[in-house]
Amino acid sequence: MNIRSRLLHGLYAVTDSGAAPATPLTEAVGAAIRGGARLVQYRDKSGDAARRLREAQALLAVCREHEVPLIINDEVDLAVEIGADGVHLGREDAPLDEARVRAGPRAILGVSCYDSLERALAAERAGADYVAFGSFFASPSKPQAVRAPLELLRTARQRLNVPLCAIGGITPDNGAALVAAGADMLAVIRGLFAQADIEATARKYARLFQ
Questions:
Q1: Distance between alpha carbon 140 and the CA centroid of its chain, in Å?
Q2: pTM score, two decimals?
Q3: Where in the sequence is the domain holding 190, given as residue range(s)?
Q4: Catalytic pick from 112, 135, 139, 141?
Q5: How many alpha carbons lie under 13 Å from residue 181 in its C-beta half-sphere?
Q6: Which of 102, 142, 157, 203 is catalytic?
């Protein structure tokens, strides 16, 4: 396992501004990191660019303090502007080769592959640092998301060399099966940030990797 792969392992905390409305975002992310989150993604689908910039900068400070990488969902320009560690790209986002040029060779680039092994293989060939599959379970964050079978992880583990991320309705109870099938990371939104005790919940996810 190389240095980059060691970074991309464990609980992947993905923010949602609506998941923990009573807790300031920086406090929620700090609690997740203290509980064992190894990677943080800033995800905000609102149209408020000024607020996204402020929040991303604040989260970057938290992540730097704890030496945890911060990934920006979708927005390559925002990631470059604040000096984030990488970008996560979906089907409708910038092509991976374009994002690599804009973000630089050291940026961590992840690609959503949904239920498609072919998309993941193409992403690896194009230089993705990790690929994400899902939704594996029903997800309140993306109720219409395509569902991915557990067998996809097992096959991907045999065919791919980059770290594999699983997402979608993951809990501390059902996450163990995903790790056993080959997931290097579990990306969690509401299963983490909508909980009363974020730090304690993060520890439950982190224990799945021990």
A1: 16
A2: 0.95
A3: 3-207
A4: 112
A5: 20
A6: 142
Our count of domains for the chain comes to: 1
Token pair recorded at residue 90: 């979906």
Please, which pLDDT band fits residue 1 given cuts at 50, 70 and 90?
Answer: very low
Q: What is the CATH number of the domain that holds 60?
A: 3.20.20.70
Asked if 142 is an active-site residue, the reply is yes
Query: How many other C-beta atoms lie within 10 A of the C-beta of residue 121?
Result: 15
Q: What is the pLDDT of residues 138-150, one digit of tens each?
A: 887 777 778 999 9
H-type alpha helices, 104-197: 117-126, 150-159, 175-181, 190-193
43 is catalytic: yes
- Dump pLDDT digits (tens) for 12-34: 999 987 766 678 999 999 999 99
Q: How many Å separate Cα 172 from the centre of its chain?
A: 16
The structure tokens listed for 127 are 């230089």
